[in-house]
Design brief:
This is Glutathione S-transferase family protein. By secondary structure, the protein is an alpha+beta fold. The chain has helices at about 15-30, 40-45, 75-85, 95-120, 125-135, 145-160, 170-190, 205-215, 220-230, 230-240, 265-285, 305-320, 325-335, and strands spanning about 5-10, 30-35, 60, 70, 290-295, 300-305. The protein folds into 2 domains: about 5-85, Glutaredoxin (3-Layer(aba) Sandwich), CATH 3.40.30; about 95-345, Glutathione S-transferase Yfyf (Class Pi), Chain A, domain 2. The structure holds glutathione (GSH). Glutathione (GSH) binds near residues 17, 56 and 74.
Length: about 350
C-alpha cells in the first residue's frame, strides 16, 4: 500500500491522458487529489524532481524508499497502480484478453489522439476555440490580456506541431474518415455491452474515454460529428467520468475466444490504420530515418518518426512474448483477419 495517500495528480482538463487517469482513480476508488495546472512549481515546493519531459499528467507515487517520486506516462502508471492497489483492477485476468485490452489502450493513446490533435488545431474555428479555452485550464481568472497572449502562443505552437503528428491537408481525409469509422464501430459495440471488453471497464476504456472527453465535448467539429453519428459514445463518455459506484459483483469480462461480433469492426479499424502506421514508424526508426511514409487506407501518409511510438510497439510485443504459447494461440485466433496480427509477425 502506498504511503502517499491520497495520490497526488497534476493534470490539465484539456489533456486526454490527465482525464484518463483521474477517471481511472475514481473507478478504482483510489484516494487521490488533483491539482489542475502546471505541476512544476508545486513539485519544486515539495522538493520532488520534475520529470523530463514533464508531460501531463504527473503522478506522485512512492519510490523504493517510500519517498515521493514524480512520474509521467499513463500506461506504465496504470500497471504501477495495480501493484499498489489491487482492488477493482482494470486489467483482465485472462492473459489473452489482457492483451486485447492493452492493444485498445495503445490504439487510443497513440492513434485516437491523432483525431483529437487534428480536429483541435486543423480547422480555424476549432483552433480559435481551443486557443481561448485551454489557457483558462491553468486559471479561469486569467486577465484578458494574458489570456490573449497565452492563446496566441499556444495556438502557434500547437498548429506548428500538426505535421509532427501526421495531420496535414493531405492526411486530413484519412484521419477524418478513420474518426467516423471509429465512432460508428464504438457506437454499435456499445449497443451490445457497456464497455469494450465486458460489463466492467478495462484500461482501454479509460484511454478511449480520455481522448473522447475532448472530441465529444470540447472541440466543435468532432463534437458535432459525434452527436450526429454516435449518441451512445457521447453519453458513455459522460458516464465514464465517474464509475466509482459500479458494483463489480455481477460483472464479467468477455471470453477472448468468443469476443462479441461488434468488437470486430473496431479491431478491423485498428488493423486498417494504426497497424500500418506503427510498422512504418518502427521500420524508419530501425533504418535511422527521420520521417516515414506509407499507405494508410489507400492514401499516402507522411510524418516524422517517433521514438516513443517505437517504444509502444516494443512494449506491445513484449506483452505478447510474455504470454504462454496457448494464450498466444487463443489471441491470434481472436485477432485473425483484423490486420492487428501483423504487429506480432515473427514472434510466434
Ligand atoms: N504517453 C503519455 C502522453 C502524455 C502527453 O502527451 N501529455 C500531453 C498533454 S495531453 C502533454 O503534456 N503535452 C505537453 C507537450 O507536449 O509539451 C501518457 O500516456 O501519459
Amino acid at each position: 500500500m502506498s504511503s502517499i495517500v491520497p495520490v497526488r495528480i497534476f493534470g490539465h482538463i484539456g489533456s486526454p491522458y490527465s482525464r484518463k487517469m483521474v477517471a481511472l482513480m475514481r473507478y478504482r476508488q483510489i484516494p487521490y487529489r488533483v491539482t489542475w495546472g502546471d505541476p512544476r512549481e508545486a513539485l519544486q515546493s515539495l522538493g520532488v524532481a520534475v520529470p523530463k519531459p514533464a508531460l501531463l499528467p504527473v503522478l506522485l507515487l512512492p519510490d523504493d524508499d517510500e519517498q515521493p517520486q514524480a512520474l509521467c506516462d499513463s500506461t506504465p502508471l496504470i500497471r504501477r497502480l495495480e501493484h499498489l492497489y489491487p482492488r477493482r483492477s482494470v486489467l483482465p485476468r485472462d492473459p489473452a484478453l489482457a492483451f486485447v485490452d492493452y492493444l485498445l489502450e495503445d490504439y487510443a493513446d497513440e492513434w485516437v489522439t491523432k483525431f483529437m490533435f487534428h480536429y483541435r488545431w486543423h480547422f480555424a474555428t476549432d483552433a480559435g476555440h481551443a486557443g481561448n479555452l485551454l489557457p483558462l485550464g491553468y486559471s479561469v481568472s486569467l486577465p484578458d490580456a494574458m489570456l490573449q497572449q497565452m492563446s496566441v502562443m499556444l495556438s502557434e505552437r500547437q498548429i506548428g506541431r500538426l505535421g509532427v503528428v501526421g495531420s496535414s491537408d493531405h492526411t486530413a481525409p484519412v484521419i477524418e474518415a478513420s474518426y467516423r469509422r471509429f465512432l460508428q464501430a464504438m457506437e454499435a459495440h456499445l449497443a451490445s455491452q457497456p464497455y469494450m471488453l465486458g460489463t466492467r471497464p478495462g484500461a482501454g476504456d479509460f484511454a478511449l474515454y480520455g481522448q473522447l472527453t475532448q472530441l465529444v465535448s470540447v472541440d466543435p467539429t468532432p463534437r458535432d460529428i459525434a452527436l450526429d453519428l454516435a449518441p451512445r459514445v457521447v453519453v458513455w463518455t459522460s458516464l465514464m467520468e465517474d464509475q466509482s459506484g459500479l458494483e463489480l459483483a455481477d460483472t464479467r469480462w468477455n471470453d477472448p475466444v468468443d469476443l462479441p461480433s461488434t468488437l470486430r469492426p473496431l479491431l478491423n479499424e485498428i488493423g486498417r490504420t494504426y497497424v500500418p502506421a506503427q510498422l512504418a514508424n518502427a521500420a524508419a526508426l530501425k533504418a535511422g530515418e527521420g520521417t516515414w511514409e506509407c499507405e494508410i487506407d489507400g492514401q499516402r501518409w507522411v510524418q516524422s518518426a517517433f521514438a516513443y511510438q517505437g517504444k509502444c510497439l516494443s512494449w506491445l510485443r513484449e506483452e505478447f512474448a510474455q504470454l504462454a504459447k496457448a494464450d498466444q494461440q487463443r489471441l491470434l485466433g481472436a485477432l485473425e483477419g483484423t490486420g492487428c496480427e501483423a504487429l506480432l509477425v515473427g514472434l510466434v
